[in-house]
Amino acid sequence: MVKYRDKSQKITMADEKQQPEISPKPSDNLDVETLDPGKKAEKLAEQQLEMKQKGEKKALDADHQEKANDVQAKAAENRADVLVSTPDKPAATNDTPTPTPDQPTAAPADSPAPAPAPANTPANAPAVTADSPAPANAPQESKDMWGKVKEFFSDLGDKITAFFNKLFGGKDGQPAAGSEPAAANAPASSPDAPISGPDSTAGLTGDNLLNHPQFKERAQQIATKIGVSLADLYAIFKMEGVTRDKGVDPQAVNPTSGASGLIQWMPKYAPVPIEDLRKMTGLQQLEFVDKHFSPHAGKIKSFADMYALVFWPAAVGKPADYIFGAPDMEYAKKVAQQNSGIAKFSQRSDGLIDKAGFDRYANSRRPKDSAIA
């Protein structure tokens, strides 16, 4: 048997055994009529199945497209309804800036209608309308805004109250005649509230300092905070920080010990370098008076104990026979010599200061309107 590769070459049966026959690959364009009956039926079945699958895919694509068109149409109708419902207000454009963290996300009731969705919005995206829920962060931002509103009205209320107090008040801001009197120990303002205006107590001493509005207001704050009266605090100043010709003097200095200021801080225990303390005004020193007494707020049971917190803190709560300066008796004698006015109240033959004598001295200087025993 002879087969021809082309017109000029012959292939023998021996050659055919060495080269396996390659079957042609079926083609989609193969003529079915040329096939044998078995393959013909198989090919026809494949073509019918393929045509059926293509038909189903076309129908499915058409159905999806129809549904997508419906969603787009509904979204357009919703946007049109929003725009028509506010004809007097211009619709926002795509140039509307994105809200910042300081701006509320939820629009006010009278804000312009939402802008139409951008052209690249997905067909199945829900339309944004006035009834759409606010973003997840809207509650927190609304809460912050509400806090600012409350703070604003609270400040406004304080200003209105201050205005009417000033309008209907008497001299120096005191209640007008006929109004309800304030309590004797009522503070001029809340404890630790800042004193308004620049410090104008520089160079003031004596009654000029004690009656100065700024000094008096701050001193009253301290007295109220620690549970004593203003008279109690002023009495301490008059027992300690004084000079003979000026009375209460923030620059008062003990020539023997070097103690200085309103409550005679010793150089070793002064809250700031002693030279700096001596340059301070009375109002400035009151800040350190506050820090000195504040740890004992509510614990001061007597005027004697209050004075002991300034003169000899270790004596607070001690028995009547406690000796100031003991157990170093030489030092105790020195303390008594430097404070002979107190020592004479002890009535001791050795001239030392005991707790009983110290209490008698303190009570002799206790003001009539003291708030403590």
What does this structure look like?
Helix content is 45%, strand content 3%. It is built from twelve helices and four strands; from the N terminus they run ββααααααββαααααα. The chain is rod-shaped and about 150 Å long. The strands form two sheets. Strands 1-2 form a two-stranded antiparallel ribbon. It has a two-stranded antiparallel ribbon with strand order 3-4. It is mainly alpha-helical.
The tally of strands reads: 4
**CATH architecture level-2 label of the domain at 206-364:** Orthogonal Bundle
**What is the CA–CA distance across the termini?**
143 Å
Stretches where pLDDT is under 50 for at least 5 consecutive residues are 1-5, 11-17, 82-139, 169-189
Count of helical regions: 12
CATH C-level class of the domain at 206-364 is Mainly Alpha
Strand arrangement within the widest β-sheet reads 1-2
Strand count, sense and closure of the main sheet? 2 strands, antiparallel
Q: If you consult CATH, what is the topology of the domain at 206-364?
A: Lysozyme
Explain the layout of strands and helices.
Blueprint: E1 3-6, E2 9-11, H1 13-18, H2 37-85, H3 138-168, H4 206-210, H5 213-226, H6 230-240, E3 242-243, E4 247-248, H7 274-278, H8 282-293, H9 303-311, H10 329-338, H11 340-343, H12 355-364
Give a short synopsis of this structure.
The chain has 373 residues and is mainly α.
